[in-house]
Amino acid sequence: MFVLPTASNCSGFLAATSMKFHASFVPLAASAVAKSDLATLRKKTGYSLSICKKALSENDNNIAEAEVWLRGQAKALGLAKAQKLQGRNTSQGLIGLSIQENKAAIVELNCETDFVARNQQFKGILERLASTCLSTSSSDSTEAVSKTNITSDDVCKLKTEDGSSLADLVALNIGQIGENMVIGNATFVQTAKDVSLAGLSHPATEEGEPILSGRYVALMAYTKANKEDIELPEATSIEKLPTHLCQHIIGMNPTFVKNKKDKENSLMHQAFLLDESITVDKLCKDAGLTVLSFTRREIGRSNE
Question: Hey, what long-range contacts does 23-26 have (CB within 8 A, 24 or more apart)?
Fold first, then answer.
């Protein structure tokens, strides 16, 4: 569902919007709009007093219809702003990773500045992209790990729960934030029930955030055998090992799980990032962990 801007995160947008509406706004008599309805609409949408008055007057004081009217105004302004800013450089942004049981989605959202990338509204859009990819994607594959790369054009066409496209969602928020944003490619991963998923972002995501996000993310699919008498380096533990392997994948950028012909880029042949005295292969064997697949994404780089 499209989230209307709030007073806390879109003061600049509301001010600009207020100016656009002001020219066509005709002051109403105090009795024309009930104060309770006006207060309810303002609290619900975050728009200014004059805009909410106009919305109610245009819709016979019906709060629900007034809210729809406000959304239409926001959409018109947002799409116009998005078209105006189209083509501006979007080298910043975030990669988002959402894992739900045996499914995961990696999504990318680009913007113009690092300042916007740190904005909670921007992170909220990224979360919507990830949740939509998770809810609308599936695989009929019987393989242990199924990976599907989704082009940015196809991601843009995905529908949110209210029926609007992700492209429209981003365009609306461009109108609020005032900076160009572009949806990147996505990756959807689904595993068999006996295969686990682990992920990590860099910089690390703050505790309590709904998804992992950063300039880099790693997603790893693995199986774990019940093994006793496990001896691991002090730098890790059996509980932290999957996350630490994701950290290794981000830092060392391997391109294969195991490749004897290209050991430099082979995860299993690399020295473990947190303890170079042991290879990843030896570490995994000691822990009874088998890496089946991994995906590493970096902002501004193809998911290939």
Answer: 24/54, 25/50, 25/51, 25/53, 25/54, 26/54
Percent of the residues in the chain that have a pLDDT greater than 70, as a whole number: 84
Confidence of residue 207 (pLDDT cuts 50, 70, 90): confident
- Are the beta carbons of 229 and 238 closer than 8 angstroms? no
Q: Is the predicted pLDDT of residue 21 greater than 50, yes or no?
A: no
Residue in the block written with tokens 């975030």:
94
Please, is 61 exposed, middle or buried when counting C-beta atoms within 10 Å of its C-beta (0-12, 13-18, 19+)? middle
Cis peptide before 5 (omega within 30 of 0): no
- If you write DSSP's letter for every residue of 189-249 in order, what string do you get? EEE-TT-EEEEEEESPPPTT-SSEEESEEEEEEEEE---SS----TT--TTTHHHHHHHHH
Residues 6+ apart with CB under 8 A from 178: 12, 13, 16, 81, 85
Does residue 56 sit within a domain? Answer: yes
Q: Is residue 38 part of a domain?
A: yes
Number of domains in the chain: 1
pTM exceeds 0.85, yes or no: no
The answer to the question of residue 81 being in a domain is yes
Amino acid at 237: S
User: Is 39 inside any structural domain?
Assistant: yes
Domain extent, residue 55, equals: 11-85
Per-position DSSP letters for 7-60, written without gaps between them: TTT-HHHHHHHHHHHHTT--PPPTTTS-HHHHHHHHHHH---HHHHHHHHHHTT
Residue 38's domain is classified under what CATH number? Answer: 1.10.8.10
